[in-house]
Design a protein that fits this description.
Strand 10 (194-197), helix 7 and strand 11 (214-215) form a beta-alpha-beta unit. The longest helix is centred in the last third of the chain and has 17 residues, at 251-267. The protein contains 10 helices and 16 strands. Helix 1 (15-26) packs across helix 5 and helix 9 packs parallel to helix 10. It has helices at residues 15-26, 48-58, 76-79, 85-94, 128-136, 157-164, 203-210, 251-267, 298-314, 331-341, and strands at 4-7, 31-33, 40-44, 67-69, 99-104, 119-123, 141-142, 170-173, 184-187, 194-197, 214-215, 243-248, 272-276, 288-291, 319-323, 346-348. The chain starts with a strand and ends with a strand. With 349 residues, it is α/β, with parallel strands linked by helices. It folds into 2 domains: 4-220, DHBP synthase; 243-348, Rossmann fold, CATH 3.40.50.11030. An 11-stranded mixed β-sheet has the order 1-8-2-3-7-4-6-5-9-10-11, with helices on both faces. A 5-stranded parallel β-sheet has the order 14-13-15-12-16, with helices on both faces. Bound molecules: threonylcarbamoyladenylate and magnesium ion.
Length: 349
């Protein structure tokens, strides 16, 4: 399949191109599009064949449900059986934006889209191109991240093209994704709201609207016996091709430890990399040293993380070490993704 690649600027959306992209979805095709979190791989959420195609293009297990993207609040009524009060509150505070809510689904949503579950994940992105595209596509776009299953989510069109070229009908290049990590997922289908995937909208922000919010305990434990509640969180996601280890401890000792390990790796002929911070970058010796920015600037760390993992892959880095980051606020999402990328290999010194 030939993939058409088009460029749409958020500041100046070309109505003709958006219509063309929307028509592809209406006809059962697939279009990758930018959002504020990561790029999505879109298909018609109400068409079971489209969802099957999404799983095939990603190489994703079909028990892993898709997020349905909408462009206006009223559209939720068709796909959610009973919109809870909590959803109204959260939508008011955080939609459009990087928050996904899970609720009981209506019959309009095929089981193919929800991986056979009786709940549906819904998100209204804030990215203007995404909103215009969803509207043009008929209002309901199922979209996982636009990567091959198991690779880091794409934060720029370059990586979507790398993974999806010739597998889908169209890619909309909208430049870099601002946030760089996937949306926060909160499950509103149970007794108490529960975070299934941390993201830019933090637990503290949700609790300000709803009172106490739980967090799925399995998402930080590498050795949990329980499966995570978001089926997708069980897969070894966000993974670079090489081996990544996170090192936690006082700054000086972390730098020293990582340098010793890097030297060992390089003696045995391996290509090495470090995920460093502006504060430490010039103290490392490795084939590739990447900084996430200042340790204080969590938004920048989130924004840079997946790009760095992809760049290590491009450079053929085999052994990687990363510093550890704080776990408060947005740090929760950062450390969740980093731990997954490292297969939970964390060394405390
Ligand atoms: O930021 C995002 O959310 C991006 C952009 C494209 O919007 N999308 C994204 O989709 O990250 P995906 O498919 O890569 O991740 C969706 C996660 C998976 O872990 C999936 O298992 C979970 O959401 N999920 C979806 N529907 C669910 C449901 N009904 N119950 C529990 N988990 C669900
Ligand atoms: Mg994904």
């Amino acid at each position: 399949m030939d993939t058409e690649i088009i460029r749409i600027f958020e500041e100046n959306i070309d109505a003709g191109l958006i219509k063309k992209a929307g028509d592809i979805i209406k006809q059962g095709g697939l279009v990758a599009f930018p959002t504020e979190t990561v790029y999505g791989l879109g298909g018609d959420a109400l068409n079971p064949d489209s969802s099957r195609k999404i799983y095939a293009a990603k190489g994703r297990p079909s028990d892993n449900p898709l997020i349905v993207h909408i462009s206006k609040w009223e559209d939720i009524d068709l796909i959610v059986a009973n919109v809870p009060e909590a959803a109204r509150k959260l939508a008011k505070a955080f939609w459009p934006g990087p928050l996904t809510m899970i609720m009981k689904k209506s019959d309009a949503v095929p089981g193919e889209t929800t991986g056979g579950l009786d709940t549906v994940a819904v998100r209204m992105p804030v990215h203007k191109t995404a909103l215009a595209f969803i509207e043009a596509a008929g209002g309901y776009v199922a979209a996982p991240s636009a990567n091959i299953s198991g690779r880091p989510s794409p934060t720029s069109a370059k990586y979507v093209i790398e993974d999806m070229k010739d597998r889908i009908d169209m890619i909309i290049d909208g430049g870099d994704a601002g946030i760089g990590l996937e949306s926060t997922i909160v499950d509103l289908s149970g007794e108490r709201p529960m975070i299934l995937r941390p993201g830019f909208i933090t637990k503290e922000m949700l609790e300000e609207e709803l009172g106490l919010v739980d967090t799925d305990p399995t998402i930080f434990a590498g050795d949990s016996k329980e499966p995570p509640k978001a089926p997708g969180m069980k897969y070894k996601h966000y993974a670079p091709k090489g081996m990544l280890t996170i090192v936690n401890g006082p700054e000086e000792e972390v730098v020293e430890y990582i340098n010793v390990k890097l030297k060992e790796a390089s003696f045995s002929g391996k290509k090495t990399g470090v995920i460093a911070t502006d504060e430490t970058a010039d103290r490392y010796e490795a084939d590739s040293i990447k900084t996430v920015g200042s340790r204080q600037d969590e938004s920048m760390i989130a924004h840079r993380l997946y790009t760095i993992l992809r760049e290590f892959d491009d450079e053929g880095i085999e052994i990687m070490y990363s510093e550890c980051f704080d776990t408060g606020g947005l740090g929760q999402a950062i450390m969740n993704r980093l731990l997954k990328a490292a297969g939970h290999q964390l060394i405390n010194i």
